Amino acid sequence: MQGKLALITGSGRGIGKAIALKLASQGCDIIVNYFRRREAAEQTVEELKQLGVNVLLVKANVGDSAKIAEMFDTVASEFGYLDIFISNAASGVGRPIMDIDEKAWDWTLGINAKALLLCAQRAAGLMEGRKGKIVSISSLGSQFVWPTYAAVGVSKAALEAVTRYLAIEFVPKGISVNAVSASAVDTEALKFYIREGLVKDVKQTTPVGRMVTPEDVANTVAFLCSEDAFMIRGQTIVVDGGTSVAPWSSVLEKGVA
Asked: Is 60 exceeded by the pLDDT of residue 45?
């Protein structure tokens, strides 16, 4: 990883920040992307610099194709290359499926699935001859039905499908593409679902007895970015402490919908 350059969307905080810190600890220079909460992003930049790597902070809403283009134009002008792209930024509208309107649908699909496609297209042009790595961040909502998660779940399922197609079509370019899917991760985003009563007793319903942390996800992402994962292509690696293979009847009884 030493001297490689990684761009992580939504890396000012949460899972994206953990990924940035993990890659930086292995010697990667980092491009931190954020859209809101600049103060948190600037704090992340300072933490990364303490690890002795070069850091660039870029504001861009990846739900806007014009902003995606501006972000990659910045990368091209500042560096002229890219080794790793992590599609982590996510958003969405939490509503029952009968309450989802066209605007909510387009917003959620755009920022979670379309952004991966558009960013990967631009990233590929900067990865020529560099054995590039692209990793997208998904969730178990792509496979399972959770209350008010329809739009996000569908967008994550689409993201995983885009990942598979990119993986095969990018083989001739020497670029590896995979995804990491996590269950409930201990972040600010999860607090909303707990507050709304949509997720309960997460620790008790995870077979290993604790929640997934951002660092758990980051460790898997870092592995997929290494040459040790060369033969893994187009896969969605699940990080959930066994939740997805536990008997769902017992999980439901304990309070996780």
From this structure: yes
Query: For the chain, which residues make up each domain, given as ranges?
Result: 5-187+211-244
Is residue 19 within 8 A of residue 217, CB to CB? The reply is yes
pTM over 0.70: yes
Does the active-site annotation cover 81?
no
Catalytic residue of the set 133, 156, 165, 203: 156
**Nearest of 40, 132, 37 to residue 91 by alpha carbon:** 37
Judge whether 22 counts as a catalytic residue. no
Task: Give the integer Cα–Cα distance in Å for 84 and 81.
Answer: 10
CATH architecture of 5-187+211-244: 3-Layer(aba) Sandwich (3.40)
Query: What is the tens place of the pLDDT at every residue in 150-193?
Result: 889 999 999 999 999 999 999 999 999 999 998 877 666 655 55
CA distance readout (Å), 106 to 63, 64, 102: 10, 11, 6
Q: Residue 203 — very low, low, confident or very high, per pLDDT cuts 50/70/90? A: low
Alpha-carbon 211 to chain mean position:
18
Amino acid at 110: G
User: Which is the catalytic residue, given 149, 165, 173, 193?
Assistant: 149
